[in-house]
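Design job #97: recover the sequence.
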């Protein structure tokens, strides 16, 4: 969850590169920050608790220049979010930044104290700096000291380290949280996310677990944990740095809400034939099960993809948070359209319940970042049990993307706001494509039905543009809505997961009590919550469950609940029983979730804004949860 940036070169001031990069990583969540730069033969370190502004204010009075430096934004695990616990840590000329958790830190700490070490923080991270400093006393070589240290630590970590005695080197290594190397002209970079470096380079090397990279002058060398040289190809990204700027919007989240029509179009574009109104999943990569992926042409890949999807008897969808609610929508889509049974599991539960994965199962994971720790562990467990795996990610070449057998991409572009918006609706789009593809491959749906599904999907971006008009409505309504003591979100069928997602958004952003329920469960407990200070958000589109939804809504209204109804078109019945009624364009049932999500996002956004909260960086949360 922490942000890491490192720089080695002669063309820029490391301080400027690091601060700029850390700003791009603020979305990850943090509570302190720091920087260390080799300055005239000595390491200059500046740290501060709180936001980056506090660090920048301290740097105003510091003259720092040089050719190598590291910086960090910390999300506290071991030790309070204070300046003394902020990174970088320094021990006898070693400066170190660390993302993750050192699981055997207690025994390391005890051994260091027994040897007379002076430990100045409460963190597990400083202990690694002590271990490297101890090794360097004998090796006099930073890389060798890191190699000897790697076998002594357990946990999830990405670490970058520099040594005062060699101002032309940076060494980085990882086991778990992501770490990338950015390749420049006469300069190189290290960061925990490519977004920190897009303004400087588009060429990246993604480190795999237990790999070490040595930046030595302009040279980049990568080694295995036991010292064997590795050859790794650089990946060139086509992300535009301007995509991560606010472009006039008050917050990244609002910008990303408005980007959803484009994101949905980009998500379906590789897979949908707009002339034949058909779906053909592109570049899934299942062919790599039998051949090297780079040797496959699209036709071969599609043949293998059909073979895999035709042979499955069950699908497991594994994800966390918003992605798990997208997976629940996927369950409705795939079971209804393709008639394949689907189980949806929270990743943190899946990996510890010793799941039974029958033969001919497909285990599918959803992760915007492709680095979610529990989801990554789940996909590794599934592979150990012999399952075929498929990932839906937004970040190509992320760890989950690299480890899965097959790949589908959200194609959302960078998502900065911690509360996911466009990645969620892009995922729903990809799941629509997948469900239709499986249905056709297994001869469950006809050409005519496929055409109907695809035409509905192609209409979604323009229908979403219409729904975005509710931005001004919620901007004005937020003052009244924030008076409620809680919100109960209700939906049936494919709208049920959207109700849960809506409740999550309000909790994430506005810190208000909110619960999402299947409307049919009202009598089994939630009715006890309802009074005149409880808002009832009912998702009631015109579908086969509409009449049942109305009955549930009447039950809530009879007990004093203040109804906010979201339905289809100019619905007089819903208007009559609602305090507030929001009309959605008439759409196919598979598209209703895409439309319903937008007003719920806007409501949470404006409620949080009216309460004065930081919408892009909600308290206690981070964008990428890269440790358990």
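Job complete. Output follows.
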């Amino acid at each position: 969850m922490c942000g890491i940036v490192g720089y080695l070169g002669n063309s820029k001031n490391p301080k400027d590169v690091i601060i700029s990069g850390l700003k791009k990583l603020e979305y990850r969540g943090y509570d302190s920050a720091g920087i260390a730069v080799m300055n005239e033969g000595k390491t200059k370190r500046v740290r501060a608790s709180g936001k980056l502004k506090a660090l920048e204010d301290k740097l105003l009075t510091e003259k720092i220049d040089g050719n190598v430096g590291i910086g960090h934004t910390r999300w506290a695990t071991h030790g309070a979010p204070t300046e003394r616990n902020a990174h970088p840590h320094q021990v006898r000329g070693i400066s170190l930044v660390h993302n993750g958790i050192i699981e055997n830190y207690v025994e390391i700490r005890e051994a260091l104290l027994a040897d007379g070490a002076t430990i100045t923080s409460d963190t597990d991270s400083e202990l690694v700096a002590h271990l490297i400093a101890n090794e360097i006393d004998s090796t006099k070589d930073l890389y060798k000291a890191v190699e000897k240290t790697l076998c002594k630590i357990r946990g999830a970590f990405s670490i970058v380290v520099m040594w005062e005695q060699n101002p032309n080197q940076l060494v980085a290594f990882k086991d778990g949280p992501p770490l990338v190397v950015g390749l420049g002209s006469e300069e190189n970079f290290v960061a925990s996310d490519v977004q920190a470096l897009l303004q400087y380079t588009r060429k990246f090397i993604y480190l795999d677990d237990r790999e070490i990279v040595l930046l030595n002058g302009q040279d980049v060398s990568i080694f295995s944990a036991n010292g064997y040289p590795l050859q790794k190809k650089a990946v060139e990204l086509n992300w535009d740095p301007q995509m991560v700027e606010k472009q006039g919007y008050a917050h990244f989240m609002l910008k990303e809400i408005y980007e959803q029509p484009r994101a949905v179009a980009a998500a379906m574009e590789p897979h949908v034939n707009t002339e034949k109104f058909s779906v053909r999943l592109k570049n899934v990569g299942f062919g790599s099960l039998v051949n090297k992926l780079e040797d496959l042409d699209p036709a071969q890949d599609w043949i293998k993809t059909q073979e895999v999807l035709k042979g499955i008897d069950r699908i497991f969808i594994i994800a966390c948070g918003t992605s798990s609610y997208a997976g629940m929508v996927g369950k409705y889509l795939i079971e209804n359209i393709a008639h394949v049974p689907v189980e949806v599991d929270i990743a943190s539960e899946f990996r510890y319940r010793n799941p039974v994965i029958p033969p001919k199962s497909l285990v599918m994971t959803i992760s915007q970042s492709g680095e979610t720790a529990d989801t990554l562990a789940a996909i590794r467990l599934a592979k150990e049990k012999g399952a075929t795996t498929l990932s839906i990610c937004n970040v190509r070449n992320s760890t989950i993307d690299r480890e899965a057998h097959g790949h589908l991409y959200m194609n959302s572009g960078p998502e900065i706001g911690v509360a996911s918006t466009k990645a969620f609706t892009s995922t729903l789009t990809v799941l629509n494509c997948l469900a239709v593809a499986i249905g056709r491959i297994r001869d469950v749906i006809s050409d005519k039905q496929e055409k109907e599904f695809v035409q509905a999907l192609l209409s979604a971006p323009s229908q979403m543009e219409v729904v975005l008009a509710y931005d001004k409505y919620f901007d004005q309504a937020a003052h009244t809505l924030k008076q409620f003591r809680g919100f109960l979100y209700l939906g049936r069928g494919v709208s049920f997961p959207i109700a849960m997602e809506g409740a999550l958004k309000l909790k994430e952003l506005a810190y208000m009590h909110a619960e999402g329920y299947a409307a049919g469960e009202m009598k089994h407990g939630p009715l006890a919550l309802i009074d005149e200070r409880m808002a009832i958000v009912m998702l009631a589109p015109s579908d086969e469950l509409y009449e049942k939804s109305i009955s549930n809504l009447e039950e809530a209204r009879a007990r004093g609940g203040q109804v906010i109804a979201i339905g289809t078109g100019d619905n007089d019945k819903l208007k009559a029983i609602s305090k507030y009624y929001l009309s959605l364009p008439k759409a196919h049932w598979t598209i209703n979730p895409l439309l319903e999500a937008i007003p719920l996002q806007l409501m949470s956004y404006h409620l949080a804004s009216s309460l004065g909260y930081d919408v892009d960086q909600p308290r206690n949360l981070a964008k990428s949860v890269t440790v358990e």
